[in-house]
Amino acid sequence: MNHILRFTHLVVKREQKEIIHGISGNFQSSAITVIMGPNGSGKSTFAHVLMGDPAFDATGKIFLDKQDMGVVFTEERSKKGLFLSFQTPVAIAGISVIDLLRSAYAERQVQMNGKKKVIYNPVFRKQTNTKGIDWTVFIKTIRKESEFLSIKPELLERSIHEGFSGGERKKIELLQAIVLKPKFAIFDEIDTGLDVDALNIVGKGLQRLVHEKSGVILITHNTRLMKYCKPDCVMVMNKGVIVACGGISIAKDIEEHGYAQYK
User: Fold this and answer.
1) Are the C-beta atoms of residues 91 and 159 closer than 8 Å to each other?
2) Which of 4, 32, 65, 164 could be stapled to 216 by a disulfide with Cβ–Cβ 3.0 to 4.6 Å?
């Protein structure tokens, strides 16, 4: 099934300061959309507003397919198929990566298939009341996708992002998206700090999401990652407005000449 994430006349303020000025557009599933723009152009703010961050005062409309997201809180937006990877993922002590993935996977199965709610035992693989949820599939998926993303197995047993390198944090964020298969996955500068090998792996992971019919929204400053996953659309934001929208030629033009002509 194809999905559309649509926004119309979106105005965003924070502490009375207007950051985004009445933008409209849409994102398609099974496609990669890149959002580029100089620092302070409103890209990260836009991502947070799509997820319903209460720190921002937003007017206008956001629709996931035919459902108005304006009345849906962040947690519910996630359950309905939106995913946001933060620019700087935070460490969370005491909760392992595998526990996070297991909880999120169970909640996603409940939402997608009406499975019975799960009650967890803190010991891995000893869940109770898991009727209708195939944990064998989950375990196989985690092993397969972790290997695909070159994630060391021991990282899955450690607290979320605690002591992880920048590249390891970005891979773990991507792993979450691949396991959850959201309708739309938003990545805020997932390419920052990655070496060439990691960029290649992340690019393949993003392509896998598209193959699974997710819509991928990439916020970035440069074209490095686009060498490994070709975008279907490039949007340019500047001073809170979408000033251009087109193909990859826009990104190449920005790389060569900067944002001077996109004002």
Assistant:
1) yes
2) 32
pLDDT at 116 (0 to 100): 53
Longest distance between any two alpha carbons in the chain, whole Å: 59
Q: 183 to each of 78, 134, 158, 212, 221, how far by Cα in Å?
A: 10, 21, 28, 9, 24
Dihedral sign for Cα 43, 48, 51, 57, please.
negative
pLDDT digits (tens, 9 = 90+) for 106-130: 887 777 766 555 444 443 344 444 5
- Residue 22, SS3 per DSSP: strand
Q: Which of 104, 87, 95 is nearest to 48 (CA)?
A: 87
pLDDT of residue 124: 39
pTM for this entry: 0.90
- Kindly report the number of other CB atoms within 10 A of residue 23's CB atom: 20
Residues of the chain with pLDDT under 50: 118-129
C-beta separation of 179 from 212 below 8 A: no
What DSSP element (H or E) covers 33? strand 32-36
Domains of the chain: 4-85+184-191+214-257 (3.40.50.300)
Tokens 């739309």 locate to: 184
Distances (CA, A) of 42 to 46, 88, 100: 6, 16, 30
